[in-house]
UniProtKB/TrEMBL annotation:
It holds the Pfam family Peptidase_M3. GO terms for biological process: peptide metabolic process; proteolysis. The keyword Kinase does not apply. Transmembrane segments: none annotated. This is Oligopeptidase F. Binds 1 zinc ion.
């Protein structure tokens, strides 16, 4: 079927970016307006810390500028995403990015100025931003009514500062890790250098590495690349998988000394900044921004270790499903079931998603319908359009979703996933001031994964075809393996490499390959053949250059499974409290916000529930063999 141009696509399948800017001329007017507003920044710098009223006025003015800057950039980039060859929007996106950078630079004085205030002043501003009791009582427990509006002892504080109280609280919390002006200047000057290890690996991995070629099942030569590697590893032909695996990793073996030096430098950089900012470890520094204790990271690893027998069982089931007498690491990616269902039209896909998510209530369902009908979604692939899928948008306008709908079952799950992000954004924007609407990455994948889990359960309950059920279960099992177990293994590797560096041990390719090889053997168990090649896998993982990030995949998925389990079991107020979580934006720290949905990660319960769900799904799949 010939791909349609954008002009040939019906309007109902295209997003309505006019809801941000009605015309390009309106965009240009806002661009000029922001440049004009930026002329007032020097005067804001003078009055920022004058008093409580001046601070509130300055923060409101800054928020206005940042809002316009966001509108300009998002609109231009999304227009460019419609057709990346469009020179006009290439130019607008570049101009918007430049203006954002200039604005960020001009406003860089804000945090240092607030942190330079005398002890107690910033805390006083926070106290002024929220209802407080003259006698020191908590507004929630005051004996004269329990609510500030009913108690003569309580005052409402400066309502203009209220949207910024959490931001100010974060500044106070970070103060002990902020250095002197001279020290901060030195660290900022080193920023470009500190990014060198990641830049070096990126160039090696995406430009310099040359992968060999292999023959596919039909005997045709295939030049390997990152994308082709995944495709070939899914081949039903085991000889093809084995040859692909060995050929691909040989490229990393050939460059292992250079890659090891780059990663070791990245780890040393993390250790340096942690010590410079007076943290106990690089791990502690990384978790600080989300206010997550190191014990949570350790609990994740311990809980997965305790449940590794389920992973070993998965390996055994995979071996049986593939009809093999032994299993190797190159057998991990090939699907255990083929998709047999015909093509899903976009309308059919949306109906499946709406039915799968009906358990979230009528309001949520109505919003899904609004997303479909109201210009939220850009559906089909067209020449020049950005590939993949995402959800994005600006405060004050409904969220947007970019798709490249292919009509397979994976495309249905993609719709559910991206609409999860969109609903999280919608509810947060509707219920929080702009300063608190944006949520952290730590919780960003929860809503999208809840939708996928709910859709999975709906499909398993309604699908009668055995092959289709096997495919759905295979899809589900792979999520547990890749998102929870494998990412936790990555997280443990990062912990080990940083601990070694902090102990003064040299990070060589031999030491890191041994660490990784031992971990892989532990996580996959005795049922899978151990080989030397998999010990080099760490060398191809770009996430390792953004230290201690991958654990969030495992915790996010676990939280989503726990929430979905509560909803599907009919737990009292589970849906209501989940919507409260979606509505919370960034109004508190991620762990506190998750508690709104009855998820407490501190003791590892969500991870335990997640692994129990993994075992349950595995049992269902095994019964179908």
């Amino acid at each position: 079927m010939e791909e349609k141009t954008r002009e040939q696509i019906d309007k109902r399948y295209k997003w309505t970016l006019e809801d941000i800017y009605a015309t390009d001329e309106a965009w240009e007017q806002d661009y000029k307006r922001l440049e004009k507003l930026m002329e007032d920044i020097p005067s804001l710098q003078k009055t920022l810390t004058k008093d409580e009223k001046s601070l509130a006025a300055a923060l409101a003015a800054i928020e206005k500028m940042e809002h316009i800057a966001g509108d300009l950039f998002v609109y231009a980039r999304m227009r460019r995403d419609e057709d990346n060859a469009n020179a006009a929007y290439q130019a607008r996106a570049a101009r918007a990015m430049d203006l954002n950078v200039r604005l960020g630079s001009a406003l860089s004085f804000v945090s240092p100025a607030l942190l330079a205030l005398k002890p107690g002043v910033l805390e006083g501003y926070i106290g002024a931003a929220v209802p407080h009791c003259k006698k020191g009582r908590d507004p929630k427990t005051c004996k004269k009514g329990g609510h500030c509006s009913k108690c003569s002892n309580h005052t409402h504080g400066n309502r203009q500062l209220a949207p910024y109280d959490f931001m100010l609280k974060e500044l106070v919390r970070s103060k002990k890790h902020v250095l002197s002006k001279k020290e901060e200047r030195l660290l900022s000057m080193a920023a470009d250098i500190s990014g060198a290890p990641k830049d070096i690996f990126t160039m090696i991995d995406n430009a310099d590495l040359k992968f060999g070629s292999v023959k596919d099942a039909d005997g045709k030569d295939v030049q390997l690349s990152h994308g082709k590697y995944i495709v070939m590893m899914q081949s039903p032909d085991r000889a093809v998988r084995k040859n692909t695996y060995e050929t691909y990793y040989q490229s990393y073996k050939d460059m292992i000394n250079t890659i090891s030096a780059a990663y070791a430098a990245s780890v040393k950089k993390d250790v340096f900044y942690a010590r410079a900012r007076k943290f106990g470890s690089a791990l502690e520094k990384s978790l600080f921004s989300d206010n997550v204790p190191v014990s949570l990271y350790d609990n994740l690893i311990e809980t997965i270790h305790k449940n590794l027998p389920t992973m070993y069982r998965y390996v055994d089931v995979r071996k049986k499903a593939l009809g093999l007498s032994d299993l190797a690491m190159y057998d991990i990616y090939t699907p255990l079931a083929k998709e047999t269902h015909g093509e899903y039209s976009y309308e059919q896909s949306m109906e499946l998603v709406k039915k799968g998510l009906a358990v979230l209530g009528g309001e949520y369902g109505a919003l899904l319908q609004e997303a479909q009908d109201g210009g939220w979604i850009d559906v089909y692939e067209t020449p020049g359009k950005t590939s993949g899928a995402y959800s994005w948008g600006v405060f004050g306008v409904h969220p947007y979703v970019l798709l490249n709908h292919r009509g397979d079952l994976d495309s249905v799950f993609t719709i559910a996933h991206e609409l999860g992000h969109a609903m999280h954004t919608y509810y947060s924007n509707q219920n929080q001031p702009e300063a608190k609407a944006g949520y952290e990455i730590f919780v960003a994948e929860v809503a999208s994964t809840v939708n996928e889990v709910l859709l999975t359960h709906y499909l398993l309950e309604t699908e009668q075809d055995a092959d289709a059920r096997r495919y759905i279960l295979n899809h589900y099992l792979d999520q547990f393996r890749t998102t929870v177990v494998r990412q936790t293994m990555f997280a443990e590797f990062e912990k080990m490499t940083h601990a070694a560096a902090e102990a003064g041990e040299a990070l060589t390719h031999e030491s890191m390959c041994k660490m990784y090889g031992d971990l892989n053997a532990l996580y996959y168990g005795p049922q899978i053949a151990r080989d030397d090649t998999i010990s080099y896998e760490w060398a191809r993982i770009p996430h390792f250059y953004n230290a201690f990030y991958v654990y969030k995949y495992a915790t996010g998925f676990s939280c989503a499974v726990k929430i979905a389990s509560d909803i599907l079991s009919g737990k009292k107020d589970a849906v209501r409290d989940y919507i409260r979580f979606l509505s919370s934006g960034g109004s508190d720290y991620p762990l506190e916000l998750l508690k709104l949905a009855h998820v407490d990660l501190a003791g590892g319960e969500p991870v335990e529930v997640c692994m129990q769900e993994f075992a349950k799904a595995l049992g269902e799949f095994e019964e179908m063999l």
